[in-house]
Amino acid sequence: MQSAPKLALMTEPLAKRLAQRLRNELDQSGITQQQLADALSVAQSTVSRWLTGRYTVPIEQLEPIARVLGVEIADLLGAPLATARRAS
Q1: Do 51 and 22 contact (CB within 8 A), yes or no?
Q2: Which residues of 17-33 are buried (b: 16+ CB within 10 A; e: fewer)?
Q3: Domains and CATH numbers, the chain
Q4: How far lies 47's CA from each of 76, 78, 80, 83, in Å?
Q5: How far apart are the first and last CA of the chain?
Q6: What is the pTM of this model?
Q7: pLDDT tens sequence across 17-26
Q8: How far apart are CA 9 and CA 47, in angstroms?
Q9: Contact yes or no for 53/16 (Cβ under 8 A)
Q10: 24, 53 in Cβ contact below 8 A?
């Protein structure tokens, strides 16, 4: 018997945008994939797969990722209000 497919908690465009924003924030912060993985208690390969979009970042990891990177969750998701707020 096959298991039921898991429901995606993020739409594909949102997941792709999150992967891109996460890559950008890592680059800007100077934090390595390994350092992020260690801070989140996940494997470096998991972080790598998040960055390539092969895996979707679990919702429950958004807050810890944002905290490590020193950004708001909205910044990772690409919310227009967060971007405007940062610029002012």
Answers
A1: yes
A2: bbbebbeebbeeeeeeb
A3: 12-87 (1.10.260.40)
A4: 14, 19, 25, 24
A5: 55
A6: 0.76
A7: 899 999 999 9
A8: 18
A9: yes
A10: no
